[in-house]
């Protein structure tokens, strides 16, 4: 989900991947792998990207967290039930 959002932001604003990779101090290949879900986005990158794009605070963080949760439960038979139980607790 985060990778799709990053691609959408780049397409929307017209910044090349190189701009974001310089901002995050990573190479363009690594950034591309983050967009394509081959590498996870580091948590410390989230506020940097939010600020760069002028996004609402924690808007990308919510998607980042959803990715983390999804990766934990995606192959579990009782994933939906577990998420429903968590939702009731929250």
| Terminal CA distance | 22 Å
Major sheet details: none
Strand content: under 5%
Shape annotation: elongated
Pick out the low-confidence regions.
none
Helix content: 55-70%
**Rounded mean pLDDT score:** 93
Count of DSSP H/I helices: 6
Total number of strands: 0
> Taking Cα atoms only, what radius of gyration do you get, to the nearest Å?
15 Å
Structural class: mainly alpha
Order of helices and strands: HHHHHH
Description:
The protein contains six helices and no strands. By secondary structure, the protein is mostly helical. The protein has helices spanning 2-13, 17-24, 28-35, 46-53, 59-73, 79-89. The model has no long low-confidence stretch (mean pLDDT 93).
Which key features would you list for this structure?
90 residues; mainly alpha
Show the helix and strand layout.
Blueprint: H1 2-13, H2 17-24, H3 28-35, H4 46-53, H5 59-73, H6 79-89
Helix pairs in contact: 2-3, 4-5
Structure described in brief:
With 90 residues, the protein is an all-alpha fold. It has helices spanning 2-13, 17-24, 28-35, 46-53, 59-73, 79-89.
